[in-house]
Amino acid sequence: MTDPWVALEPGADPAERVRALHRAHETFTEAGTVPRPVRGVVADSWRRSARAGVHPDGSADVELTDGDLGTYRAEHPLAHVMPLFRELLGTFASDGRHLLAVCDARGRLLWVEGHASTLRQAGRMNFVPGARWSESAVGTNAPGTAVAVGRPVQVFAAEHFVRRVQPWTCAAAPVHDPRTGRLLGAVDITGGNGLAHPHSLGFVRAVARAAESQLALLTPGRPAARGSELAVLGRDRAVLTTGGRGIRLSRRHSEILVLLAERPDGLTGDELACALYEDESVTPVTLRAELARLRQVLGPGVLASRPYRLTLPLESDAAVVERRLAAGAVTTALAGYPGPLLPASRAPAVVRLRRRLADGLRAALVAGADPDLLADWVHAPWGEDDVEVWRALAAARPTPSHRARLAALEAELAAPGGWAGREDG
């Protein structure tokens, strides 16, 4: 196969592939091994689904309905491009007895539209607005897997992890904020096996790119006079937006700017070295070289010394989340949290900031006991093994799938050598 993201190579017999996939799925659910002809992207997704405790006979939970769903959709950035999605995909979906679906970055369906009879069939498996279709909730599926891997992907028939979804085929592509690169969600086309064609994947990929282009026109970069912005959440390398342009920083420069944004009064060379380096033998020359390179990136007059400090305002997305938390706005704080702060960083001070922010969010979620917000956390990659939040969710919304996942995590904890939870969220 030339493209591993396409479900069927040219000339393949769909009926024979369906039979082979059913056999492979049964082998995996019984023995935990993935035989051929399962694609690598699907095999990896099956393993993630199993680790998340998804049952092959499970179903999606509907988490938002009525007014709550309407409010959430109206405030979501992808609402701005729904007319574009309908124009480009709506007629194709309706004429082909398919569905157009759009999900958020957590895999929750926001819109599901298309042919009336297909909508009724999809409703029987809770493929409806407000339902959670992330991988960690219902296993391998195109919108959930697209947001999990950040790539356009096709899922064909028995490649779906949950059996009741296996009569369907879908193709989805992620949509990102063109200014910050933050994942916003995915656009999906769902229907019969006729969608298992390279053209459907290429089509949905093109629609996602068109949506990003329209969002770029709707949200141009802010003028430099209003300060600069630093996106550090859910990414290993920060994006600095300044003067209407975005700059992707190196990992070390990302760490330095996080620390200087946190301390506008500045840091001495010794303080910055202790904050950055685990190895105490790193020399001051190494730090000065990094700072010289950062000055070249930032331009003249932005990074001062003695102490090291920024001369222009710099707002980080982490600071925005912390400010919302301090104000008690937990819903908007979580909405602005696409993932841990520089998750790959081992700089001591960055690790402390990452833990402080994640622990603050977790504590607010548990105290608030809002089942939708708790579900957002545990169905995200950084929260899928968070026992404390799973306990709060199982208490607030005791569905069979929530209780089963909690029981599996607690059993793993009780086992000899059981893990004690993730380092940070």
UniProtKB/TrEMBL annotation:
Q: Does the keyword DNA-binding apply?
A: yes
Report the source organism: Streptomyces fungicidicus
The UniProt record lists the OmpR/PhoB-type domain at 244-310
Q: Name one GO molecular function term.
A: DNA binding
Q: Carries keyword Lipid biosynthesis?
A: no
UniProt-recorded name of the protein: Transcriptional regulator
The UniProt keywords, alphabetically, are:
DNA-binding
Q: What GO biological process terms does the UniProt entry carry, in alphabetical order?
A: phosphorelay signal transduction system; regulation of DNA-templated transcription
